[in-house]
Amino acid sequence: MTFFSPTQVFLNYRGEQLRHSFVSHLIAAFERNGINFFVDKYEQRGKDLKNLFLRIQESKIALAIFSTRYTESSWCLDELVKIKKLADKKKLHVIPIFYKVKVEDVRKQTGEFGDNFWTLAKVSSGDQIKKWKEALECISNKMGLSLGDKSDEADFIKEVVKAVQCVVATIGLEEEEENHFGKKKRKDCKCELPDLKKSRTKKL
After folding, report:
1. Which residue in 108, 121, 181, 201 has the fewest CB atoms around it within 10 Å?
2. 172-193 confidence digits (pLDDT tens)
3. pLDDT (tens digit, 9 = 90+) per residue, 89-137?
4. Is 79 assigned a catalytic role?
C-alpha cells in the first residue's frame, strides 16, 4: 500500500496541450511515489477561479509547467499570479518546469510562447498583462527543470519526482522545527536544481 505525503502539490499547466500526455504520465509517477497532488482536470468548465485559488492556498508546492500553448490560457496565467503572490510571502515552494520551451521565451515572452501571450494580451487589460509579465519573469527565474525536444520524457519525469520529494523533505524539516521550537524558519531547499537566472537549465 502506497503512503501518500500530506503535502499537496498543485499543478499549473495548459490542459489542452498536456493533460493526456506529459501531465497524465507525471500524475501516474506521483501516485506510484506517494506524492499528494491536485490537478484541475476540467479546466474552465463552469468552475469559479476562486476554487482553484483555494486549492493553490492549500498546497505547499506548485509546479508551473510551461509549454508553448501555456499562454493561450488566461486561467493558467491568473493561477501563476496567485502562485507568485504566495511564493513572495514564503507560503509556497515553486518549481518551474520548462516543457519543450526555452527559459528565455518564458521570461521575455518571445518565440511561439510569446506569440500566444501577445495574442491573448490583445483582448486583456493593461493591469492583467502587467501582472502576468511579472509572474512569468519571477517564476522563470527560480530553480527548475527543462525538457528539450529530443530528451527522454520518462527520465525527465523521474527528475521531477526527485525534485518534488526533495522539497517535501525540506518542508517536513521546517514543520518539525516549528513544532519543536514554536517558530517557523524557511529553509532553502538543497535540491540539485539549476539556477535559471542566467538561463542555465538542467536538460535531459
Report:
1. 181
2. 877 666 665 665 555 555 555 6
3. 999 999 999 999 999 999 999 999 999 999 999 999 999 999 999 999 9
4. yes
Read off φ and ψ for residue 187, nearest 5 degrees. Answer: -95, 150
186 burial (CB, 10 Å; 0-12 / 13-18 / 19+) is: exposed
Question: Half-sphere exposure (CA, 13 Å, Cβ side) for 33?
Answer: 21
The alpha carbon of residue 27 and the mean position of all alpha carbons in its chain are separated, in whole angstroms, by 14
Active-site position among 16, 58, 79, 104: 79
Buried b (16+ CB within 10 A) or exposed e, 53-80: bebbeebbbbbbbbbbbbbbbbbbbbbb
pTM of the model: 0.86
